[in-house]
Design brief:
Elements: H1 3-29, H2 59-63, H3 77-98, H4 112-136, H5 143-168
């Protein structure tokens, strides 16, 4: 793989970590009827806002040893685990979609169909993770997650069908 491809895979992994961080917020706040945008992230113990420098997916949790910077209260390892797993999922999706190069597509990074397929699969992964964690916390899964998963599956099917017929002609 080229350096450009490695750079893009690194970006996709970081994007997955950031989305994993946001999914933690969604999973905690959405079922409770709270905004997923405001207020910003806070310590569950002292309610002090988490500084942006202490909100870097996985790394901040590791550097602070799973504790709040202000009150030293424990921060659940689930936050870092979700961020890390979504980051790894995005890396895996990126490797699966962009690593396979055939003679018809010499530069897979410039293929809009591959990017669209990646987006559909990323939506599926994120929605399934949200649904699982919300249900695990004892809340009903919002129906909009099922709709998003369904639409992403249909979208991926359409993209794959179009590519099949494009390559076959």
């Amino acid at each position: 793989m080229s350096p450009q491809q490695w750079l893009i895979l690194g970006f996709l992994t970081a994007l997955g970590g950031c989305l994993g961080s946001f999914l933690n917020v969604v999973v905690y706040r959405w079922p409770r009827g709270n905004s997923v945008v405001r207020p910003g992230s806070r310590c569950p113990h002292c309610d002090h806002p988490i500084r942006p420098i202490h909100n870097i997916p996985v790394f901040s949790w590791l550097i602070l040893r799973g504790r709040c910077r202000d009150c030293q209260g424990p921060i659940s390892s689930r936050y870092a685990l979700v961020e890390g797993l979504i980051a790894l999922a995005f890396l895996g999706l990126g490797l699966n979609i962009f690593h396979n190069v055939d003679e018809l597509s010499l530069n897979p990074m410039n293929d809009p169909a591959r990017w669209s397929l990646f987006a559909c699969q990323a939506v599926i992964v994120c929605c399934l993770a949200c649904a699982y964690l919300i249900r695990r916390d004892g809340f009903p899964v919002p129906k909009v997650l099922y709709l998003a998963i369904f639409l992403a599956i249909v979208g991926a099917g359409v993209i794959m069908s179009m590519e099949f017929f494009r390559l076959g002609s």
